[in-house]
Every structure is written in structure tokens, then in C-alpha cells.
Amino acid sequence: MNGxxxxxxGGMGAGVSNWRLAQAVSRFGQLGVVSGTAxxxxxxxRLQDGDPGGHMRRGLDRFPFRTMAERIWKTYYIAGxxxxxxxxxxxxxxxxxxxxxxxxxxxxxxxxxxxxAHDGHDNPVGINYxxxxxxxxxxxxxxxxxxxxxxxxMGAGIPLKIPGVLNHLANHEPANYELQVTGAQDDDDTxxxxxxxxxxxxxLPPLVRPRFLAIxxxxxxxxxxxxxxxxxxxxxxxxxxxxxxxxxxxxGKLQLTEAGEPIYGERDTVDLEKMRELRLPFxxxxxxGTAEKLREALAAGATGVQVGTAFAFCAESGLRDDYKQALLxxxxxxxxxxxxxxxxxxxxxxxxxxxxxxxxxxxxxxxxRPRICDLGYLREAYRTAAGTIDYRCAGEPVSVYLxxxxxxxxxxxxxxxxxxxxxxxxxxxxxxxxxxxRGLVTSGDALxxxxxFLPPNSPVYTASDVIAxxxxx
Length: 473
Fold this sequence. Notes:
- By secondary structure, this protein is of the alpha/beta class.
- Helices cover about 30% and strands about 15% of the residues.
- The longest helix has 18 residues, at about 100-115.
């Protein structure tokens, strides 16, 4: 498949796959991918931390709509950064009718992240989104496309309408996306609409439509996307249950191991012969982070592999250095542990958790945290008795969740992934001047092998070390 990368760097977490990591991978001719999750929140926290290195300012200076860029800078930038015990400013939560302020932030933040990832090379850059976080999709995609993103990757759902959205946004045309609303009736308005020209300064030439790669865990989903998507699907990432982050649940009745992990069986194995029959490029992910597995994937007809965990712990990733080094040390000593937790995520999807002291992977740390939902990216939209749309999260205070019609059993073990994932990258919220949010590191099962990427006598490794080792021989 000429013109396609052999290695796709995974779009991990919120800010773990940041512009620095994507830039480093793309410089070596592979596909660097930034995570599009919560970029609006991450961007304004970087500004409130004083924009170390001036990188956000550099990205803003390239943004085509100057009034919008300067308004955001003046609102959120704190010269020298906020004090250690000062809270970050709160943003409105995303909703079907999000305020203009939030829409502008999505456009700008996605533009800046992709723009910075393009620095220093002429190779493609991608961006990764979670389909289930639907509300920010349209302005986020538009911002990334304004910056010339070449690939859009999306999983954690069925992104049938994204190909068509990309077609519309490339021509600055209005785009729609359906919000999934629990209990919605046929005549309810659940459509999110984004009109690019409501935000532009004058006319712009058409944008380049990025290639769309759907992340799938089954042949059925891949076939469905090819047949029913409202535009071109350019390829697939076939992700197995050993990959980090959210995993697709096992097919059939849920069964757990003695450790409480979901059991995956033959029904959860993708038939690669059927993938080849689709005659589209595909990359294998989840346990393919070695040269041997890359050769195996190529021999099976794949275009290449997607690798996440190895890149998540390299020097350029956005993961906090203390978390990164602690888990790398555990891997060296053979003590690294990863649990596929069926309860942690408010979404109900299994979520892979790396055990690390001081994070909410420890039961006592989790129990000590008040249940607070103030970021809300994983909230569920639902229809109220009055026929309006409201939002609830299984990680919010139990009484609040129950008052919104939620079930008590759905709150058991649920963790605030939104706050934890932002804390993972060094932007934890501070509450009442003293309580600091703790992180929760997600990783694939390959965490146990990441020490193999360390050069001799070095405590750290780089993205180039990963690429060189994967392409060895």
C-alpha cells in the first residue's frame, strides 16, 4: 500500500499523545497521531500554567481567525502561570447547544495541537477521537482540518457519519451529528449542528479532506462501515483487547476471571481473511509492539501496525515524568501490573488500568476522593420526563445520579476518568487550595515489556528508539 505508514502511533489518553510525540514520530516517516480528547480543557490549562516554552502562543499566531485567537489568549493566559494552590478556571460542560466560547475553544485547541505536530517535517499527522464523546466532534474536526490534519482515526463507537462530516467541513459547509440520547423519542431534536461560516473571518479556500481510519474490534463493524457509512472509509485499525484505554466489551454474556477481568474468546478474534476481502488498508493493534509482531502483521496482509504503549512511556509523550519513570521501573523489575477493569469507566466499557501507588488505581485513594463530575466528557445524555435533554454520569455523586433516573448499581466502582486523565499529564485540578486530583494511568498489556526499548545504560528511551526497534530486520 504505497503512501501509507507502516507504523501508526496510538492516539492515547488525554494529552499523552501530544503534539511533541506526534511530531517526533512523523519526523521519522511514520504516522504521528495527537489525541483529540479534551483538547479544549488541556489547551486552556496550558495557558493558565503560563504557556511554558511559548508553544501555545506560537500555534495561536498561525490561527487564521485573529479575533478569536486573541480573545481566547486574553481570557485564559496567566503570565508566569497560576500559583500552585490556585484552581484552574472552569469551562462550561459540553452540551447539545454548547456556548460559543466552548465551540471556539474546540476549534482553536485542535488547530494548535495539529499545527505544532507538523513542525519540522513535511510528513502526515493524524488525530484520534472517541466516537462516544460526540458533542465536541464537529468544531474539533474543523479546527484540526484548518491545520491540515491528514488522517482522522476514530473508535469507541460506530462512526458511520464521520466520513460525510469530513466531506462537508472540507468545503466549510454546515455539518450535523446525532447525539445519542437515552430514552429519546422519534420527534425529539437530537441533532448537533455546526456552521463553519458562523466562525470564519471571510471566505476560505476548500480544505483537504483527511483520510478516515475507523478503529474496529470486529469484522461485522468493519463491513457495516464499508456498506453504510455516508462517505468514504479509507481504512481500519483492528484493535484487540490487550490494547490500552477503553476496550470493546466481549461478545456474548460477560464472564470474569477470578481477578475480575472480562474474558475474551474466539468470538472476539477478528478474521483477517475477511478484512483482506474488504480491499482496504488495515493496521493491527493491541500487542503488536515488537518487530516480530510487525512482520507477522505484514505477512497476514496488514499494511502495518498501530503501537500505543511503547510510545506512551517514551520521553516525548505527555505522561507525567514521575508516573512514567515509576511504571518503567516496575517494568524493569517485572512488577508491572495492568488490570482490565469492567467498572472503572462511567461509559460501561472495560478500561485498562496500570497499578501505580498514589493514583486512584489504589482502592484507598479512590475511596478518599469525593465523587465530583465537573468536566463531563463521558456524561450520558438522556431524555427527562419533561421532554428535554439532560446529562448524567455514573461517576458523579450517587444521589445526584439517582435523581436523574440512573441506577445505583451502575455507580459501583466508577471512577472520574476525565479528571484523572488530565492529572496524568500534569494539569490536575486543585480544589479548596489543597486537594489535588490524582491520576489513573491506562496502558496496554505490553507495559510489562517496555523496558526492552531502553538503550544500554539509559533510564529513558525516545520515539526514535521505538521506531528503530520495531523496524529492525
